[in-house]
Amino acid sequence: DQEQEQRRRLLDVASRFPLPSGCRFSYGTAGFRADGATMAPAVCRAGILAALRSVKLAGAAVGIVITASHNPIGDNGVKIADPDGGMMDQQWEPFADALANAPDPDALLQMVLQFVKDEGIPLGGHHTAQVLLGRDTRPTGEYLLDAALQGINAIVGAHAIDMGILTTPQLHWMVWSKNKGTKASESDYFTQLINSFRRMLELLPKDKGGYELAKKLIVDGANGIGGVKLEQMKAELSGLDIIVRNSGKEGEGILNHLCGADFVQKERVTPHGFGPEDVGVRCASLDGDADRLVYFQMSSSSDNKVDLVDGDKILSLFALFIREQLDVINNNGSQVDKSLPARLGIVQTAYANGASTQFLKGLGLEVVFTPTGVKYLHKKALEYDIGIYFEANGHGTVVFSEDFISQLESLSNDLSSQAANSQYHAAMRLMAATQLINQAVGDALSGLLLVEAILQYKRWSFQNWCELYSDLPSRQLKVKVVDRSSIVTTDAETKVSQPSSLQELIDKETANYTQGRCFVRPSGTEDVVRVYAEASTQVEADSLAKSVAHHVERLLG
Ligand code: G16
Q1: For residues 194 and 435, is the Cβ–Cβ distance under 8 A?
Q2: Fewest CB within a 10 Å sphere: which of 19, 103, 151, 214?
């Protein structure tokens, strides 16, 4: 019968993907990540889990993305998207961990049976489940996708749909759209971005004057999937002349190697493939799966240093734009007496440059902090009518509550008879922004288009944007230790609670520097401890980071 069939399939798939001895997986900041060649057992089991999640949620579509994002080409990983397009509910992470590490087929079977019992999942009955899969361009991607498919198919009634090679945010968007009952194919994604971007440009203020943004934009695609997708879309992006470098084509270079958003943000130098001829040109950089975005510009041909616009400044630009539209709508006494109450919240992490937080608070905005990881920031942002979240590394988006969107819709309808007035235009701009910016997860492609539209709207150059505030000099270092989990943090990762002596040492070092700030945390995507330091000069930030890294090494190395 069905139940027997279910047991047989689970035992069968588990024996096809045995866990190598000594192997231990942990569901980290963004799912499981490791050397791609070792990932098949974890990916297969993530397939089982995704199918179970869909059964639990009455057959709603769940997503699986095979990617290690900004990590080196040899790594790979898997993350699961919930039906709302966001990261999998954290309550399931302990089960994901246990399942990935189940030592043998019997243990795996017992674990699943116990879990479905505890969770009330109707396994083996007449249920359906659907899982959408996507992967990036990594060489181990196809092999791991097959492992995921086998895992999904081990659940009776589960249906896997391979959506192909995609950016991570595209897959999240597809899951989100499918469950909303709206069109969810890749071409629908492109159409939505292209149309809402065009709409934003149609809504630019008519009174020209001041700076005109250059059409030319060079995009570093990190030799990943983002550049490929941008190439497909760029011809239809009116008003922009996009050139993709590190596009992933044969001979252009290696994924994320000396290029991409992580490299540019951490090293603050030009990526591979950029040279003196690019001085003064506005440039953007994506990471390997296009969920991160930073901007940069070379200011001189004598070195390869760049002026960087990181996630904090992208966030600030979005916040200014949205606030301005709300102000036009709400403080426009002479026009139609309509208002749009909105709680606007800004979400950052400890990596946010101190100058950005000060800038945002100075605007009177509410700024809150979460631990690193989009799964925390996104969740927090959903508590607001409009939640804007970004990590300094360029990962972020803007989320609008359903209630806010419906109020915005009805306001736009009420104002439509006065199509010439500024209130109406502001409402329409916000509406276009809700369409343009990915509601499921941080998306470099949709983020890039929103940035471009806002720069044109504000008639700002890259330099104007960059000079919004001056970043405090900062430094990030990685330290290899024996067991990174021996560091435990608290207060949104700003303090170490274990080992207890470490925080005292950090405090003591930090006190030696003007505007000093420093924290350490175990990475959730790499086997390292990260050290972040900020101070009033680069030399001081470097020195603070170095001395704290030294303490970490001494205590844990
Ligand atoms: C992932 C997460 C990000 C996080 C980053 C670094 O990025 O999605 O939220 O900031 O890892 O995490 P950690 O410092 O724990 O290694 P990506 O772009 O690799 O998916």
Answers
A1: no
A2: 103
Q: Among 33, 73, 374, 521, which residue has the most ligand 1 atoms within 8 Å of its CB, making it the best to mutate?
A: 374
Distance between CA atoms of residues 525 and 486, nearest Å: 16
- The strands making up 293-298's β-sheet, listed across from edge to edge, are 241-245, 216-220, 283-286, 293-298, 306-309
Would you say 529 and 481 are in contact if contact means Cβ atoms under 8 Å apart? yes
Measured in angstroms, how far is the CA atom of residue 168 from the centroid of ligand 1? Answer: 13
Q: Dump pLDDT digits (tens) for 81-136.
A: 999 999 999 999 999 999 999 999 999 999 999 999 999 999 876 789 999 999 99
Residue 481: phi and psi, rounded to 5, are -130, 170
Would strands 529-534 and 517-522 be described as parallel, antiparallel, or unpaired?
antiparallel
Distance separating alpha carbons of residues 458 and 213, to the nearest angstrom:
10
Q: Give the span between the Cα atoms of 120 and 131, in whole angstroms.
A: 20
Quickly tell me which residue has 């958003």 as its tokens: 261
Give how far the C-alpha of residue 191 lies from the chain's centroid of Cα atoms, to the nearest Å.
21
d(C-alpha 34, C-alpha 204), whole Å: 46
9: helix, coil or strand? helix
Is the beta carbon of 70 within 6 A of some atom in ligand 1? yes
Atom of ligand 1 nearest to the CA of 68: 19
Q: Three-state SS for 159?
A: strand
Query: Relative to the CA of 292, which ligand 1 atom is closest?
Result: 18
**What value does the mean pLDDT of the chain take?**
95
Q: Residue 337: pLDDT band by 50, 70, 90 thresholds? A: low
In this prediction, the answer to ipTM > 0.90 reads yes
Q: Tell me phi and psi for residue 384, to 5 degrees.
A: -110, 165
Q: Respond yes or no: is residue 69 known to be catalytic.
A: yes
Distance CA 40, CA 517 (A): 40
Catalytic pick from 15, 21, 54, 69? 69
Nearest 10 degrees: CA dihedral of 196, 199, 204, 206?
A: 170
Judge if the beta carbon of residue 67 lies within 6 A of ligand 1. Answer: no
